[in-house]
Amino acid sequence: MAYQTITVEIEDYVALIRLNRPEALNALNSQLVGELAGALSEADRNDKVRCIVLTGSEKAFAAGADIKEMAGKTYVEAYTGDLFGADFDRITATRKPVIAAVSGYALGGGCELAMACDFIICADNAKFGQPEINLGVMAGIGGTQRLTRFVGKSKAMDMHLTGRFMDAAEAERSGLVSRVVPATKLVAEALAVAKKIAEKSQIALLAAKEAVNRAYETTLREGLLSERRSFQALFATEDQKEGMAAFLEKREPQFRDR
Ligand code: CO8
Q1: How many Å apart are CA 70 and CA 33, to the nearest integer?
Q2: pLDDT for the residue 38
Q3: From ligand 1's centre to the CA of 67, what distance in Å?
Q4: Looking at residue 126, what DSSP letter applies?
Q5: Closest ligand 1 atom, residue 59 Cα
Q6: Is the dihedral of CA 29, 14, 258, 248 positive or negative?
Q7: Which CATH superfamily is domain 6-198 in?
Q8: pLDDT tens digits, 198-235
Q9: Single GO molecular-function term (predicted)?
Q10: How far is 218 from 215, CA to CA, in rounded Å?
Q11: Residue 1 has pLDDT above 80, yes or no
Q12: Which of 35, 51, 85, 243 has a Cα-to-Cα distance from 7 of 20 to 30 A?
């Protein structure tokens, strides 16, 4: 499928999706969000993809929702048109692991998009922010909920109410990102991590992702029960037999997704 606002490359079972609107610092317009949702759904269905890396350019992962596109909208248009709603739901419904590789600005919707991925690896030049307050609005695709879960109420309030940016060191310290790497090595590092993930049993990967996500959506008791049942269910797979046999025989496992 040909896209105009993103590029997709697949190699070694990893799909590298790049946001590609350099003229607008990868601002998220309806076309880009729709294309991204389509590319992620396609990657989910593609047997040649086992892990996905989502990135932007060195200057910007994404500088937010497209202000030019949004500026003239009325409440009725935003509400009845469900601005980004359905497409963003499709993005967050991706079942395979998605790593956000963030360099430069991840602001507003860009920060929200990165947080909607499974984890964030960022470059040392990364800047995260929810500056919507400066535009007379607020976050609208998960920022108030996800940032608060990542960094806690105090920092989340600080970010949303002042619109200030958080640099890579603070983002790592606060638990927003999992690793910080030099900007020049960001994509290579993210791809290396994705390739490692791609070697695992896909059944176990999907189950582990589902289980971690439940931590945000249910009570501890329900989450623990759900985790236990998924763990036990994995003993019905050949990959569990192979993984444990390989450990005992001191060799690398050969997972077959069965
Ligand atoms: N939308 C549209 N165009 C943008 C955006 C954006 N978010 N950000 C940058 N651009 C454009 C600029 O207009 C400029 O275009 P042009 O050359 O045609 O004037 C080009 O990108 C380069 O930008 P700058 O010249 O401003 O570059 P600087 O290096 O000087 O500054 C900044 C970089 C600091 C990132 C600056 O561009 C900036 O502040 N951008 C806006 C950041 C922002 O406010 N983001 C939040 C947007 S609102 C949002 O994301 C809401 C999400 C929820 C939506 C949910 C709907 C339901």
Answers
A1: 13
A2: 97
A3: 7
A4: -
A5: 29
A6: negative
A7: 2-enoyl-CoA Hydratase; Chain A, domain 1 (3.90.226.10)
A8: 999 999 999 999 999 999 999 999 999 999 999 999 99
A9: enoyl-CoA hydratase activity
A10: 6
A11: no
A12: 85
pTM for the whole thing?
0.97
Which of 25, 69, 159 most suits a substitution to test ligand 1, by most atoms within 8 Å of the C-beta? 25
In angstroms, the Cα distances linking 243 to 48, 57, 201 are 22, 38, 9
pLDDT band at 17 (very low <50, low <70, confident <90, very high): very high
What atom of ligand 1 comes closest to residue 108's alpha carbon? 50
Strands (E), the chain: 6-11, 14-19, 51-55, 60-62, 98-102, 105-107, 119-123, 127-129, 165-167, 179-181
Domains 6-198 and 201-249 share a fold: no
- Are the C-beta atoms of residues 190 and 54 closer than 8 Å to each other? no
ipTM over 0.90: yes
How far is the centre of ligand 1, averaged over its atoms, from the C-alpha of 22 (Å)?
Answer: 11
Residue 190, token pair as written in the block: 């993210």
Spatial CB neighbours of 92, under 8 Å, sequence gap ≥ 6:
116, 142
86, β-bridge pairs: none
Domain-wise residue ranges, the chain: 6-198, 201-249
pLDDT, mean of residues 240-256:
97
Confidence of residue 84 (pLDDT cuts 50, 70, 90): confident
Catalytic residues: 65, 109, 112, 132
Q: pLDDT at position 65, please?
A: 97
